[in-house]
Amino acid sequence: MWAGWFRLKSFVQGTKQEGTKQEGTKPKDTVSTGAGAANRPRSRPADPPAGSAPPAAGQPGPGSAAARRAVADAGAAVGAYLVAWAWLGAALLTDPGPWLLALLAGVAVITRAAGSVLRRKPRFSTPADRVTLGRAGIVACCAAETVVGLTVGAEAGPSPLVVVLGTAAFLLDAVDGRVARFTGSATAEGSRLDTDTDAALVLVLSCAAAGIFGLWPLGIGLMYYAFLAAAWFRPSLKNPLPSSTVRRVIGATQPAALLFVLLPGVPPPLGAMVLGPALGLLAFSFGRDVVGLERLRASRASATGSPTPRAGTPAGT
Q1: Other CB atoms closer than 10 Å to residue 198's CB: what's the count?
Q2: 198 vs 54, which has greater pLDDT?
């Protein structure tokens, strides 16, 4: 009896499936999901809410191997700095106060670099990013050593270790770009990480130079961050800049000039003669970029016939 019942059930189900195939062009049944929701076919789940769409095909999601690798790379960079400074700081300092202050200075540098990787959507890291993260760890150690020189050894001037670490980070700047091109992993996110690391190195070296020449060399290190701050109030400054050889040359001049004036034995008058023109060139470069971006904004506004947005108004509003 049970065998006959199962044969009858299979026959009925097969008949229903054939009937479904024959309907073909008939609209699917819908079911109301409640107030405020559109009717949806029974055969598929409800659409995900806005902002929670899954990553596109071929892109790594939050739980993918690429995302886990990015977390591991960022964590390894932070951990490597902490281990390096724990050893280096213990060899250089006995007072826990300056040691902790120096540790925090380096933490600010390395966590900004690691956070740049972790904030990516979808999250990923490339071989070039790993080189840049390693360079950020060197800049973090350089920042910590700079704090030591400004607090403990202010009378003796910057430590030669600052020059050694700064030079290593400066030379590695040419490596991550080559790795990106060689591996075909050049990305806009990697370029931003590289730029942020360059800016952190210049800021650290300008702080070390301020211990010799006064506060005015800080203008070299702070100009990039002033530009980023201005972009919050002037959205047109967030637009991408075209590639410029002049900008690259001027940008490379800044850490080179700072490293030169920090060398032991360089007289302060000579250092001032080097840093002054470097600061002037940097101001010219940023000023030219600001003018170019403002002209681009004005040309786009005139082309669309829309009024010029006020400062502080988000783009597109």
Answers
A1: 21
A2: 198
